[in-house]
Specification:
Layout (H helix, E strand, L loop, with lengths): L12 H11 L7 E2 L7 E5 L7 E5 L2 E4 L8 E7 L8 E4 L8 E4 L5 E4 L8 E4 L8 E4 L2 E2 L2 H9 L6 H17 L2 E2 L3 E2 L2 E9 L2 E10 L2 E9 L5 E2 L2 E3 L3 E5 L2 E10 L2 E10 L2 E10 L1 E2 L2 E4 L5 E3 L2 E3 L1 H17 L5 H5 L15 E3 L6 E3 L2 H9 L9 H9 L8 E4 L6 E4 L9 E2 L1 H7 L2
Parallel strand pairs: 1-2, 2-3, 4-5, 5-6, 6-7, 8-9, 9-10, 12-31, 13-14, 14-15, 15-16, 16-18, 17-19, 18-20, 19-20, 20-21, 21-22, 22-24, 23-25
Antiparallel strand pairs: 10-11, 25-26, 27-28, 29-30
Length: 420
Amino acid sequence: MHNFSCMISPETFIQDFRDLRRKSPQCGSWARASENCDYGDIMVVSKDSYMCFNSGNCQNAYYCEDSRQMTDCCDCTFCEGCELCYECVDCDNCYDCNYSQDCSNCRSTDFSYGCKRCKNCFGSVDLRDKEYCMFNEQLTKEEYEKRLNDFDYASASIRDAAFAKVEALKLEMPRMYTHQLDNENCTGDYVYHSKNCHICFDTRHTEDSGYIIQANLDMGTKDSWDCGPIPTGMDLCYDVGYAHYLFNCHHLYFCGNLKECNWCTDCFESANLFGCVFLKNFDKGYHILNEEVSEEDFKRLVPRIEEVLKNNGIYDIWDLINKEVPAQPVIEARDMKRICLLCESDFVLVNDEVKFLDEHKQVWPMYCPPCRASHRINLRNRRDLYKRKCDCCKETLITTFPENCEGLVYCFNCYMDEIK
């Protein structure tokens, strides 16, 4: 074994790491076990999907983000198990639903919010097991179909009027203080199947962890803090972003299948790395700045380097990288060129997107994909937590709804007692 420890200087570690990273390749788009998903990033086990991000098990999906098991869907965010859906947010197991949010197990339900197990509903809020309802009014099948046929999806003014009516209806209905399901002792929002989680967001299957965000691609974290977006299958990790299947790792960016690794980027299937970049299958021995060192020198040099990092105010992986951003993938112009009405940037429509929109009688978008994604994300509360009282029982809540927000906010028990 060659010993390069004499070439490693703790005093120059920061610059040496940046030089190493600058010379190393960066991944412009991460598509794992996927086919024809070139445009987008962090796509796993997917096929024929365009401009999708942080998603998995998708087929024929377009402009979807943070979603799983999507089929023939377009412009959906934080959705799971949906098919033939358009412009939906936080919906799961829905079929042929459009312009809806927080709906579950619904079918042919448009412009709706918080509905569960409903079908053939329109403009409805917080309904359960209902059919042929419009703006929460129960109709006969004939009345419902007649009113729906009179609705012009292509008219912006008519769509805006429907959105306004739904927003007014939402203010009349109590809202549960948080979006959680099958949890124990968790705070945050959009947390599912988790236990003992502190201020986590968009997280599932996570235990004994805090400040975890967007752990929803596959499985979450255990005994980990300050990880995300997209941390998957982590144990004993800290300050990790865009990584999967780690054990006892700290300060990593874009890594996977690592053990006992620190201050690394773009490393996979390895162990005992420190300050390494673009390594794979280095599971034997010890490495610093991609150079092999003895175990004795590794244990001697690492504390000295960490002291240098501390003294220079390097507290997380972004500090070490100096907030460098990898080059983004270039998107080819396709078909109809358009100018976004919000940011005035150029964008194009692709054939499959147009085909989807026309088949579902949807108006062609006038906003670019980033602006559309921002609109969907902005539907949700900010990741800020407040202490406030339940508007029903006055119990103290930790919630993303501030005390001065409009509408009613209930605790779980009051919400379940009130909901229909």
